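Render this sequence as a predicted structure.
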Amino acid sequence: MSGIVRFGVSLDQGLLEQFDRLIRGKRYTNRSEALRDLIRKELVEREWQEDREVAGAITYIYDHHRRDLLNRIMDLQHGYQKYIISTQHVHLDHDHCLEIVAVRGRAKEIRRLADDLKALKGVRHGTLSMTSLGREID
């Protein structure tokens, strides 16, 4: 277990004031925790850029009345089944459904799955939320 290390950071006064407003708005209790989260965010992003094994969630909304869309979604998900951990289906209203797909695998394949799902005709909007497996981030 590593210990806590203190270090100094020099910032322009205006930038520090903007940072303090930002972290207050995000409910951080101190600058150190905010800086730790910013560093972790960058480390996670590097894992995705380096095509490491990662985890994430693909969230998308679609029109369930769209002809043959459900079959295309299922076919696509079956093609990527080794990356899909689980799915959750939510009925938003009479016409629209929300699906959340938990994924794990190489970043490139997860992005490809998200892009393929979002590109289906009838999918209104989709996002990919990515994270790390946490092995290399303290």
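Summary. Residues 13-49 form one domain. The CA atoms of residues 30 and 50 lie 31 Å apart.
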